[in-house]
Structure formats: C-alpha cells, structure tokens
Predict the structure.
Amino acid sequence: MVGYDIVVIGSGPAGLAAAASAYKEGVKSILIIERDRELGGILQQCIHNGFGLFYFTQDLTGPEYATRFIEKVKENGISYKLNTMVLDITSERKIIAINKEEGLLEIQAKAVILAMGCRERTRGSINISGTRPAGIFTAGMAQRFVNMEGYMPGKEVVILGSGDIGLIMARRLTLEGANVKMVLELLPYSSGLTRNIVQCLQDYNIPLYFNHTITKIYGRDRVTGISFAEVDIKDKRPIAETEKEVACDTLLLAVGLIPENELSKKAGIEIDPITNGPVVNDRMETSVEGIFASGNVVHVHDLVDNVSKESEVAGRNAAKYVLSHKKFPSIKVKTVAGHGVLYVVPQIIHPQKMEEEITLYLRVKDIFKDQRLMITIGTEQNPKPIHSIKRLIMAPGEMQSINLKREQILKGIHVNDAAGIDTGLKLTVYIEAKGERKDE
Amino acid sequence: MNREIICINCPLGCRLEVTIEEGKVAKVTGNTCGKGVEYAQTECLNPTRTVTTTVSIKNTLYALLPVRTSKPIPKDLVTKCVQYLRRIEVKAPVRTGEIIVENILGTEADIIATKNLEAL
C-alpha cells in the first residue's frame, strides 16, 4: 500500500485550489486523483467567459481559469493520477481506486480532501411523463458534446431550467446553428445571472417562460415534441387549460445539481439534508477527523471564485492537520439558518481555534430587496447581535457570503464556557423581519 | 427614440428607460446607480460582446479547441465571427493565449486559444 500525506479526490477548481494551498502550507506529499482524461474538471467544458472576476479580477473563460491552477499544481510537482476512479474511502482514510494501467490501488492518506463536485439532476429526478426516446440530455452533457467532443445534440431545441447552465447552452446551441425554441422555468424568476438573461436569451430573441414546466415528452426513437403548461404559483402543479404542444428533436434539462457524496457516505461522513453535502466546520473538516471537503461537493456554488477561496481553507487546514497533531480545545458553535435563510456553511465553528477570519456562505429562500442580514450568537434564549449587513438585493440563485472576524465571534460568547462540549451556542443568520418585503 | 433595456451590472437587474436623441443618450431613468447610465450609453450606442467559441483541432485528446476574442467586438458581428471560425482548423500543440486568427473580421480583436492542448 502506498501512502501520501494528503490525497485530494477530484481535480476541478476545488481539488486544484486545495492541493495548491496545502502545498503552500508546507505539505509536499500530495496526490490528486481524477477520473477524467485531464485536470480541470467541468471548467474545461465551460468555454464562456465570466470566471475569475473576483479571484483574479479578470474576466476569464473556464479553461483559462483552470489552466492557472493546473500550471501551479504542475510547477509545484504535485502528483496526480488521471483516468482513475476512487471506489471507496474508509473513515481511517484508506482509499481504494482503480485505473487501466495499475489496476486496483490501495492508498493510505494522513488527510483526505473531498473535491468531487456535483452532478446534474436528470429526467428521473423531476419525473416528466411520456415516452423514453433519444434526444433528452442534461445541459452539462450537451455542453461537453458541443464544446469538447464536437457533436451537436440536435437542431430544434427546448430547454427546461433557466439557471446559468441552461442560459449559456441556449446561446451556445444557437451560435452553432440550432434553433432554440424556448426556455421554460418552473419558478417565477431565473436563478441565472442578469447578464446571461440579456446576453444569452435576449440577444438571440429566445423566449423565456416563467412559471412553466414540461408536462409530457413525445417520440418513439427520437424526441418529436413536448407539451408544456403554466403552473400554479403556489403548488407548482400544471394548469391543464394552459397546456400546449411544441415540436422539437432535443430537450435539454438544466434542472439543478446534486453534490456527489457517495464516497463521503461510505466514509461515514455526516451529510446535511439541506445542502446535500458534508457537514463541515470552520476549517472545512467533515464529521470524520482528517477528512476535509470543499467546493460543490459541500454545497452548490454559483461562482467558481468562491469555490477556490473555500478550497484554500480546506487545503491549508488539511496541511495543518498533517503537520501538527496538536489538539487544542475549543467550544463548539452551531450555525443556524434563521428567518429567510435556507442554509449556512460551515455548519460548525470553533471560535477559539478558527482562523483570523472566516467566510460564511448562505442562500436565501426568496427574493429580498433592500434588507438587512443579521447575525447573532448565543444560546437560544439569549442571542446577542454581533454583525449586520444591508444588501440591496438577495436572491435564491445568488449565494451570499459574510466575512466574520474571530474577535467578533468571541465577543459574543463567554470564553470560560467549557471547552470541547456542545454548549448549545448558536450563530444564527437571518433576514431582519421588519420592513416590508417587496416581491417582483 | 425610447429603448427599454435591463442593466447587467449586478443582480438587481434594473429596467432602464433610455431616451436617445440625435444619436446620443439624452436621458436614463430606472437606474439605481451610476453604472446604469454608463451601461445604457454603451449598450444603446455601441453594444459589444466577448465571443467565446471553438475551432477544430487535430492531433490531440479532443476534437475542439476553445477560443475567445481578445477584446469585445460589435454585437452584430458575433454570429458572423462564430460562423467564420467554424471553418478554421489548427494542429496541436497549442498554448493558452496563442493567436489563432488575427484581426477577426477587421475588428482589431484577435482570436486567441483559451486552453493548452498537447500533441498526442
């Protein structure tokens, strides 16, 4: 059995940034395991620009963004295995992997960083009725065909889902000669960037129907058409009288992403039912000691810049874990999603041993205009406000982040609280209830 | 002439009402900040887009090489630019930043590779 100090699973933006930052922290024995033919992950198929505006303050394409990190990994001589699939991880950090050249591999790691990213939801996860013909693709799969392999998925296209991937593919297929007939969105708003609504749909006169979904798929061997209908805003059920048919030979599904945690579950890691990713603490360590996680495997991000930043925290702390086994106690504070907030990551903070500053990532449940995000810390009965931020707009499709300094958190708690014990302290993030909510 | 556009600078997505007189932006309403006025100016008078697409590549892992314009080009040339590039074929190895087509369609923008692709 071979051994490494740190094994990183996945070489997308999360894995690359985590490996590079672990190296910078002083750990040289690092292995990255990637199942695809090259490093970079899904960034390699995202040939459009808009990446890196925050991290590099430059407007890069996906492959350009990946290249910067790949070059860093290669310059540092960090080892990696391509075309290698991890089959199993134990809670003792033993990894079973397989590839064509070496067969079955057993690797022992002192620390593991999970960076497997996420996968797309499919027709099966949204239960569209009808026949099962060819011509139904997830948007990301179509993206790989069009941008890397050189195949067009079809000519007459309907897209379900108006998140960024759906919007980007509407433009891409149009530019490559397809007729994108419409984009349908179940919700009353798009979770995509305004820039993409304008530059991917409006520029090409592609209609976008809110509160609409697909009710049926037609076709024997190949898709010949779909039915779509308006949905009731409250219960999301299709309204029968509004049903219409449209002919098409291709249907793209851009209906959300699921963190890919089959391996995490095998290692016995606790999964948060809302994020569908591991429960992590302020150092991005999971519930299993020595196993860290970052990026879309933890929660689905909308900007890669945030993935890189979060993964540097994971890499740096995995390295610290390997280099010093010193355990210093700290009280434990749970983060809680309060009014209007769907989730908060990390789920656990150790105020006495956290880094100088941490970033809390969260999503809101609805569109909020000109409202305040409030943060309190304390027991359920006695929460003390420690921070508040006014935001002009918050939408479910746009992840919010809040930077908190260690002193800010420590100020809110009694440091003589017993170390290491769950004292029932909670850090709650919520949207201020006063003031009216304006809906679009 | 009046035009209604959506500002793309931030998620607010302000609906801007733009009044154009004698080829100039005379009035912008509906904006929340100064960026809206700036955006209305460029979007109404000289809209540009960065083009990202692919060209064929031989002798490497993939059939396609991703490319981009080195700077935004006029919006009405985007489709023509992509169509032109569909005929281009290059051979690996190619490095990120390498110029694939100079001065595309007379726009003074170059088409550059956005990925390293090694020869097989």
User: Anything to note?
Assistant: Chain B has two domains: 2-46, 52-113.
